[in-house]
């Protein structure tokens, strides 16, 4: 995103500020309470469809818990860039 001087900075109007406050209050009221969260260990690991390699999921889960999961951030970035290019080409 390029920042330039072509559009002056404006302050939100009273209505915009009120709506923004309501939005924040709404988000705060929907926060989860203790005991209401679901962790991966609570999700059933059986999958009869064969779409999910549960052994691989368990290996990844174990690697995360042991802190030995290595991510190729360059590959992730390349994938994101390619996704954006694909979306722009669809226009």
**Unreliable spans:** none
Largest sheet: none
Mean pLDDT rating: 75
What percent of the residues sit in helical stretches (DSSP H or I)? 40-55%
- How many beta-strand elements? 0
Quaternary status: single chain
Order of helices and strands: HHH
Overall 3D form: extended
Structure in words:
By secondary structure, the protein is mainly alpha-helical. The chain has a domain at 54-91. The chain contains 3 helices and no strands. The longest helix is centred in the last third of the chain and has 18 residues, at 73-90. It is extended and about 55 Å long. This is Negative regulator of flagellin synthesis.
Layout: helices, strands, pairs:
Elements: H1 14-29, H2 54-66, H3 73-90
How is this structure best summarized?
The protein has 91 residues and is an all-alpha fold. Helices cover 52% and strands 0% of the residues.
